[in-house]
Amino acid sequence: MVYSLPTRMRLFSSLFFVLTIVASTGLASAEKAKSRTGQEKAAKKACSVGDFQKGVDILSDLFVETSSPTYVYNQGRCYQQNNRWEQAIGRFREYLRIAKDLTDSDKADADQQIADCERSLGKSAQLAPPPAVAAPPPIARTETPAPVSETATPLVVVEPAPLPLEDDHSKSLRTAGVVCAAVGLAAVGAGVGLALKTQSISSDEQKHVATVDRENQRKSLETWGWVSYGVGAAAIATGTVLYIVGRSSYHASSVALLPILAPDGVSMMVWGSMGAQVLANRVTHAHAYSRDTAAAGMCPVWWDNGGSGKGSYAIFDRTTGAQTEPTIVNAIVTGTQEGLASPGTYATLANP
Protein backbone atom coordinates (compact mmCIF):
# COMPACT_ATOMS: atom_id res chain seq x y z
CA MET A 1 0.00 0.00 0.00
CA VAL A 2 1.33 3.36 -0.94
CA TYR A 3 0.52 6.28 1.32
CA SER A 4 0.44 9.84 0.23
CA LEU A 5 2.78 12.37 1.76
CA PRO A 6 0.23 13.92 4.10
CA THR A 7 -0.81 10.50 5.25
CA ARG A 8 2.78 9.46 5.88
CA MET A 9 3.34 12.62 7.87
CA ARG A 10 0.36 11.87 10.10
CA LEU A 11 1.60 8.30 10.68
CA PHE A 12 5.08 9.52 11.65
CA SER A 13 3.60 12.07 14.02
CA SER A 14 1.44 9.45 15.73
CA LEU A 15 4.37 7.06 16.02
CA PHE A 16 6.57 9.81 17.49
CA PHE A 17 3.88 10.71 20.02
CA VAL A 18 3.52 7.09 21.12
CA LEU A 19 7.28 6.68 21.40
CA THR A 20 7.46 9.90 23.43
CA ILE A 21 4.80 8.70 25.86
CA VAL A 22 6.50 5.32 26.23
CA ALA A 23 9.85 6.96 26.83
CA SER A 24 8.37 9.40 29.35
CA THR A 25 6.63 6.59 31.17
CA GLY A 26 9.85 4.62 31.28
CA LEU A 27 11.80 7.57 32.56
CA ALA A 28 9.20 8.25 35.25
CA SER A 29 9.24 4.61 36.32
CA ALA A 30 13.02 4.67 36.46
CA GLU A 31 12.95 7.82 38.56
CA LYS A 32 10.41 6.30 40.96
CA ALA A 33 12.47 3.15 41.25
CA LYS A 34 15.59 5.22 41.91
CA SER A 35 13.76 7.29 44.52
CA ARG A 36 12.33 4.15 46.22
CA THR A 37 15.80 2.61 46.35
CA GLY A 38 17.12 5.74 48.02
CA GLN A 39 14.30 5.67 50.57
CA GLU A 40 14.95 2.00 51.32
CA LYS A 41 18.63 2.73 51.91
CA ALA A 42 17.76 5.69 54.15
CA ALA A 43 15.36 3.53 56.18
CA LYS A 44 17.94 0.75 56.54
CA LYS A 45 20.58 3.25 57.71
CA ALA A 46 18.26 4.87 60.23
CA CYS A 47 17.33 1.51 61.73
CA SER A 48 20.96 0.41 61.96
CA VAL A 49 22.14 3.57 63.79
CA GLY A 50 19.32 3.44 66.37
CA ASP A 51 16.98 6.04 64.84
CA PHE A 52 14.21 3.47 64.56
CA GLN A 53 11.43 6.03 64.48
CA LYS A 54 12.81 7.66 61.34
CA GLY A 55 13.33 4.26 59.69
CA VAL A 56 9.78 3.15 60.51
CA ASP A 57 8.35 6.43 59.17
CA ILE A 58 10.19 5.99 55.83
CA LEU A 59 8.94 2.41 55.55
CA SER A 60 5.41 3.63 56.26
CA ASP A 61 5.66 6.07 53.35
CA LEU A 62 6.90 3.29 51.08
CA PHE A 63 4.04 1.02 52.16
CA VAL A 64 1.47 3.74 51.43
CA GLU A 65 3.05 4.29 48.03
CA THR A 66 3.36 0.64 46.99
CA SER A 67 0.99 -1.32 49.32
CA SER A 68 3.74 -3.92 49.59
CA PRO A 69 3.55 -5.93 52.86
CA THR A 70 7.35 -6.33 52.70
CA TYR A 71 7.72 -2.85 54.13
CA VAL A 72 5.54 -3.83 57.11
CA TYR A 73 7.82 -6.83 57.67
CA ASN A 74 10.83 -4.51 57.51
CA GLN A 75 9.21 -2.27 60.12
CA GLY A 76 9.12 -5.27 62.44
CA ARG A 77 12.80 -5.97 61.73
CA CYS A 78 13.66 -2.32 62.46
CA TYR A 79 11.90 -2.47 65.84
CA GLN A 80 13.55 -5.86 66.54
CA GLN A 81 17.04 -4.52 65.86
CA ASN A 82 16.47 -1.75 68.42
CA ASN A 83 15.07 -4.03 71.19
CA ARG A 84 11.52 -2.78 70.77
CA TRP A 85 10.08 -6.25 71.14
CA GLU A 86 6.41 -5.41 71.60
CA GLN A 87 6.28 -3.06 68.57
CA ALA A 88 8.18 -5.63 66.49
CA ILE A 89 5.70 -8.39 67.37
CA GLY A 90 2.83 -6.13 66.36
CA ARG A 91 4.33 -5.39 62.92
CA PHE A 92 5.15 -9.07 62.23
CA ARG A 93 1.58 -10.05 63.04
CA GLU A 94 0.29 -7.24 60.84
CA TYR A 95 2.49 -8.59 58.04
CA LEU A 96 0.95 -12.07 58.37
CA ARG A 97 -2.52 -10.51 58.33
CA ILE A 98 -2.24 -8.35 55.21
CA ALA A 99 0.19 -10.40 53.10
CA LYS A 100 -1.54 -12.64 50.54
CA ASP A 101 -0.18 -15.75 48.91
CA LEU A 102 2.69 -16.11 51.35
CA THR A 103 4.81 -19.20 50.99
CA ASP A 104 5.23 -21.61 53.86
CA SER A 105 8.81 -20.47 54.32
CA ASP A 106 7.73 -16.78 54.54
CA LYS A 107 5.10 -17.64 57.16
CA ALA A 108 7.60 -19.74 59.11
CA ASP A 109 10.12 -16.89 59.01
CA ALA A 110 7.57 -14.39 60.37
CA ASP A 111 6.49 -16.83 63.10
CA GLN A 112 10.13 -17.39 64.04
CA GLN A 113 10.70 -13.63 64.32
CA ILE A 114 7.64 -13.36 66.61
CA ALA A 115 8.90 -16.22 68.79
CA ASP A 116 12.36 -14.63 69.07
CA CYS A 117 10.85 -11.29 70.11
CA GLU A 118 8.61 -12.95 72.71
CA ARG A 119 11.58 -14.83 74.16
CA SER A 120 13.66 -11.63 74.35
CA LEU A 121 10.71 -9.80 75.89
CA GLY A 122 10.45 -12.43 78.64
CA LYS A 123 14.16 -12.15 79.48
CA SER A 124 13.90 -8.36 79.70
CA ALA A 125 10.99 -8.68 82.13
CA GLN A 126 13.04 -10.99 84.37
CA LEU A 127 16.04 -8.64 84.43
CA ALA A 128 14.03 -5.47 84.98
CA PRO A 129 13.95 -4.21 88.61
CA PRO A 130 10.59 -4.37 90.39
CA PRO A 131 8.54 -1.21 90.07
CA ALA A 132 9.03 1.24 92.89
CA VAL A 133 6.15 1.33 95.30
CA ALA A 134 5.30 4.81 96.41
CA ALA A 135 5.49 5.16 100.15
CA PRO A 136 2.17 6.03 101.75
CA PRO A 137 1.89 9.58 103.00
CA PRO A 138 2.74 9.96 106.70
CA ILE A 139 -0.19 9.75 109.00
CA ALA A 140 -0.78 12.98 110.83
CA ARG A 141 -0.40 12.45 114.53
CA THR A 142 -2.35 14.45 117.02
CA GLU A 143 -0.36 15.07 120.15
CA THR A 144 -2.45 14.58 123.29
CA PRO A 145 -1.42 17.02 126.02
CA ALA A 146 -0.05 15.32 129.09
CA PRO A 147 -2.38 15.49 132.09
CA VAL A 148 -1.38 17.91 134.80
CA SER A 149 -0.61 16.23 138.09
CA GLU A 150 -2.85 17.31 140.93
CA THR A 151 -0.13 16.76 143.53
CA ALA A 152 2.56 18.91 141.93
CA THR A 153 1.87 22.45 140.76
CA PRO A 154 3.48 23.33 137.39
CA LEU A 155 6.19 25.93 137.93
CA VAL A 156 8.09 28.35 135.81
CA VAL A 157 11.41 29.16 137.46
CA VAL A 158 13.47 32.15 136.45
CA GLU A 159 17.03 31.10 137.18
CA PRO A 160 19.43 33.87 138.19
CA ALA A 161 22.87 34.03 136.67
CA PRO A 162 25.26 31.66 138.49
CA LEU A 163 27.77 33.22 140.78
CA PRO A 164 31.43 32.59 139.99
CA LEU A 165 33.28 30.38 142.43
CA GLU A 166 36.25 32.69 142.88
CA ASP A 167 36.08 36.19 141.47
CA ASP A 168 37.65 39.61 141.98
CA HIS A 169 34.69 40.72 144.10
CA SER A 170 35.32 38.16 146.85
CA LYS A 171 39.03 38.92 146.79
CA SER A 172 38.31 42.64 147.04
CA LEU A 173 36.02 42.11 150.02
CA ARG A 174 38.63 40.15 151.91
CA THR A 175 41.34 42.70 151.06
CA ALA A 176 39.13 45.57 152.15
CA GLY A 177 38.35 43.72 155.37
CA VAL A 178 42.04 43.32 156.18
CA VAL A 179 42.75 46.99 155.39
CA CYS A 180 39.82 48.20 157.50
CA ALA A 181 40.87 46.01 160.40
CA ALA A 182 44.45 47.35 160.14
CA VAL A 183 43.18 50.93 160.09
CA GLY A 184 40.98 50.14 163.10
CA LEU A 185 43.93 48.74 165.00
CA ALA A 186 45.95 51.83 164.15
CA ALA A 187 43.11 54.06 165.35
CA VAL A 188 42.85 52.12 168.59
CA GLY A 189 46.61 52.46 169.01
CA ALA A 190 46.31 56.19 168.46
CA GLY A 191 43.55 56.32 171.05
CA VAL A 192 45.77 54.51 173.55
CA GLY A 193 48.55 57.02 172.86
CA LEU A 194 46.20 59.96 173.33
CA ALA A 195 44.90 58.43 176.57
CA LEU A 196 48.45 58.11 177.92
CA LYS A 197 49.17 61.72 176.97
CA THR A 198 45.99 62.85 178.68
CA GLN A 199 46.92 60.94 181.82
CA SER A 200 50.39 62.53 181.84
CA ILE A 201 48.92 66.03 181.68
CA SER A 202 46.56 65.21 184.54
CA SER A 203 49.50 64.06 186.69
CA ASP A 204 51.38 67.28 185.97
CA GLU A 205 48.36 69.35 186.92
CA GLN A 206 48.18 67.60 190.26
CA LYS A 207 51.85 68.36 190.99
CA HIS A 208 51.81 71.94 189.68
CA VAL A 209 49.34 74.71 189.40
CA ALA A 210 46.87 73.98 186.56
CA THR A 211 46.63 76.54 183.84
CA VAL A 212 43.77 77.14 181.37
CA ASP A 213 45.86 76.13 178.34
CA ARG A 214 46.97 72.88 179.96
CA GLU A 215 43.38 72.05 180.89
CA ASN A 216 42.12 72.75 177.34
CA GLN A 217 44.90 70.56 175.93
CA ARG A 218 44.02 67.73 178.27
CA LYS A 219 40.33 67.89 177.33
CA SER A 220 41.12 67.99 173.61
CA LEU A 221 43.42 64.99 173.85
CA GLU A 222 40.85 63.11 175.87
CA THR A 223 38.16 63.82 173.24
CA TRP A 224 40.36 62.71 170.35
CA GLY A 225 41.31 59.61 172.27
CA TRP A 226 37.68 58.57 172.54
CA VAL A 227 37.17 59.37 168.85
CA SER A 228 40.14 57.17 167.99
CA TYR A 229 38.69 54.35 170.07
CA GLY A 230 35.34 54.67 168.32
CA VAL A 231 36.80 54.88 164.83
CA GLY A 232 39.15 51.98 165.53
CA ALA A 233 36.41 49.78 166.89
CA ALA A 234 34.13 50.56 163.90
CA ALA A 235 36.95 49.91 161.42
CA ILE A 236 37.81 46.60 163.06
CA ALA A 237 34.16 45.52 163.03
CA THR A 238 33.75 46.58 159.38
CA GLY A 239 36.94 44.79 158.36
CA THR A 240 35.81 41.64 160.13
CA VAL A 241 32.44 41.69 158.36
CA LEU A 242 34.01 42.33 154.95
CA TYR A 243 36.49 39.51 155.41
CA ILE A 244 33.78 37.07 156.51
CA VAL A 245 31.55 38.01 153.58
CA GLY A 246 34.44 37.68 151.13
CA ARG A 247 35.47 34.33 152.56
CA SER A 248 31.89 33.08 152.51
CA SER A 249 31.57 34.11 148.85
CA TYR A 250 34.79 32.24 148.11
CA HIS A 251 33.31 29.08 149.62
CA ALA A 252 30.18 29.41 147.47
CA SER A 253 27.92 30.21 150.36
CA SER A 254 25.64 32.07 147.97
CA VAL A 255 21.92 32.67 148.34
CA ALA A 256 19.57 32.62 145.33
CA LEU A 257 16.20 34.35 145.24
CA LEU A 258 14.06 32.47 142.72
CA PRO A 259 10.69 33.81 141.55
CA ILE A 260 8.21 30.94 141.05
CA LEU A 261 5.21 31.43 138.76
CA ALA A 262 2.33 29.04 139.36
CA PRO A 263 -1.32 29.01 138.21
CA ASP A 264 -2.50 29.96 141.68
CA GLY A 265 -0.11 32.84 142.25
CA VAL A 266 3.49 33.99 142.52
CA SER A 267 5.89 33.06 145.32
CA MET A 268 9.58 33.48 146.04
CA MET A 269 12.01 30.78 147.13
CA VAL A 270 15.21 31.62 149.01
CA TRP A 271 17.83 29.00 148.29
CA GLY A 272 21.14 28.72 150.12
CA SER A 273 24.02 26.96 148.39
CA MET A 274 25.41 23.71 149.73
CA GLY A 275 28.51 23.94 147.53
CA ALA A 276 30.88 24.28 150.49
CA GLN A 277 29.56 21.18 152.26
CA VAL A 278 30.94 17.65 152.02
CA LEU A 279 29.21 15.31 149.59
CA ALA A 280 27.29 13.36 152.28
CA ASN A 281 25.70 16.57 153.61
CA ARG A 282 24.81 17.70 150.09
CA VAL A 283 23.12 14.36 149.33
CA THR A 284 21.10 14.58 152.57
CA HIS A 285 20.12 18.17 151.77
CA ALA A 286 19.07 17.29 148.21
CA HIS A 287 16.91 14.39 149.42
CA ALA A 288 15.18 16.38 152.14
CA TYR A 289 14.69 19.45 149.97
CA SER A 290 13.17 17.56 147.02
CA ARG A 291 10.91 15.51 149.32
CA ASP A 292 9.57 18.56 151.16
CA THR A 293 9.08 20.52 147.94
CA ALA A 294 7.11 17.68 146.31
CA ALA A 295 5.15 17.09 149.53
CA ALA A 296 4.11 20.76 149.46
CA GLY A 297 2.71 20.31 145.94
CA MET A 298 5.52 22.15 144.18
CA CYS A 299 8.07 21.03 141.61
CA PRO A 300 11.60 20.76 143.04
CA VAL A 301 14.19 22.81 141.18
CA TRP A 302 17.94 22.30 141.41
CA TRP A 303 20.19 25.17 140.42
CA ASP A 304 23.13 23.78 138.42
CA ASN A 305 25.72 26.56 138.21
CA GLY A 306 27.82 24.75 135.57
CA GLY A 307 31.00 24.93 137.66
CA SER A 308 33.45 22.28 138.74
CA GLY A 309 35.81 21.65 141.61
CA LYS A 310 35.68 23.09 145.10
CA GLY A 311 32.60 25.15 145.89
CA SER A 312 30.66 24.06 142.79
CA TYR A 313 27.12 22.72 143.07
CA ALA A 314 26.78 21.45 139.48
CA ILE A 315 25.46 17.93 138.97
CA PHE A 316 25.84 17.71 135.16
CA ASP A 317 28.68 18.28 132.72
CA ARG A 318 27.22 20.85 130.31
CA THR A 319 29.57 19.78 127.52
CA THR A 320 28.89 16.04 127.50
CA GLY A 321 25.60 15.88 129.42
CA ALA A 322 27.04 13.24 131.77
CA GLN A 323 26.16 13.23 135.47
CA THR A 324 28.97 14.55 137.63
CA GLU A 325 27.15 13.90 140.92
CA PRO A 326 24.96 10.78 140.38
CA THR A 327 24.35 10.35 144.13
CA ILE A 328 22.80 13.84 144.32
CA VAL A 329 20.71 13.19 141.20
CA ASN A 330 19.44 9.94 142.71
CA ALA A 331 18.67 11.72 146.00
CA ILE A 332 16.59 14.35 144.15
CA VAL A 333 14.63 11.70 142.23
CA THR A 334 14.07 9.54 145.30
CA GLY A 335 13.06 12.49 147.46
CA THR A 336 10.58 13.72 144.84
CA GLN A 337 8.97 10.29 144.60
CA GLU A 338 8.66 10.08 148.38
CA GLY A 339 7.21 13.59 148.63
CA LEU A 340 4.55 12.83 145.99
CA ALA A 341 3.67 9.62 147.81
CA SER A 342 3.32 11.41 151.19
CA PRO A 343 1.89 14.90 150.63
CA GLY A 344 2.03 17.18 153.64
CA THR A 345 4.68 15.09 155.41
CA TYR A 346 7.94 16.95 155.85
CA ALA A 347 11.48 16.00 156.85
CA THR A 348 12.72 16.51 160.41
CA LEU A 349 16.11 16.39 162.08
CA ALA A 350 15.31 12.90 163.28
CA ASN A 351 14.09 11.78 159.85
CA PRO A 352 15.83 13.94 157.22
Describe this protein's structure:
The longest helix is centred in the N-terminal third of the chain and has 44 residues, at 5-48. A hairpin with a 2-residue loop joins strand 2 (255-262) and strand 3. Among the domains are: 34-122, Tetratricopeptide repeat domain (Serine Threonine Protein Phosphatase 5, Tetratricopeptide repeat, Alpha Horseshoe), CATH 1.25.40; 168-250; 274-341, no CATH class. The protein is 63% helix and 5% strand. The protein has nine helices and three strands, in the order αααααβααββαα. Helix 1 packs antiparallel against helix 2 (52-66), helix 2 (52-66) packs antiparallel against helix 3 and helix 6 (168-207) packs antiparallel against helix 7 (212-250). The protein has helices at residues 5-48, 52-66, 69-81, 85-98, 104-127, 168-207, 212-250, 279-295, 326-341; strands at residues 156-157, 255-262, 265-272. Mean pLDDT is 77; it is low at 148-165. With 352 residues, the chain is mainly alpha-helical. The chain has a three-stranded antiparallel sheet, with no helix packed on it. It is rod-shaped, with a radius of gyration of 59 Å.
What would the keywords be for this entry?
single chain; 352 residues; Serine Threonine Protein Phosphatase 5, Tetratricopeptide repeat
List the helices and strands and how they pair.
Elements: H1 5-48, H2 52-66, H3 69-81, H4 85-98, H5 104-127, E1 156-157, H6 168-207, H7 212-250, E2 255-262, E3 265-272, H8 279-295, H9 326-341
Antiparallel strand pairs: 1-2, 2-3
- Please trace the helix and strand order, writing H or E for each element: HHHHHEHHEEHH
- Percent helix among the residues? 55-70%
Strand-residue fraction?
Answer: 5-15%
Number of helical elements: 9
Total count of strands? 3
Task: Please mark out the parts with pLDDT under 50 across 5 or more consecutive residues, or reply none.
Answer: 148-165
Q: What strand line-up does the widest sheet have?
A: 1-2-3
State the CATH architecture of the domain at 34-122. Alpha Horseshoe
Radius of gyration: 59 Å
What is the general shape?
rod-shaped
Describe the main β-sheet briefly.
3 strands, antiparallel
Find the CATH topology of the domain at 34-122.
Answer: Serine Threonine Protein Phosphatase 5, Tetratricopeptide repeat
Q: Give the mean pLDDT.
A: 77
CATH class of the domain at 34-122: Mainly Alpha
Q: What structural class do the secondary elements suggest?
A: mainly alpha
Amino-to-carboxy terminus distance: 159 Å
CATH superfamily of the domain at 34-122: Tetratricopeptide repeat domain
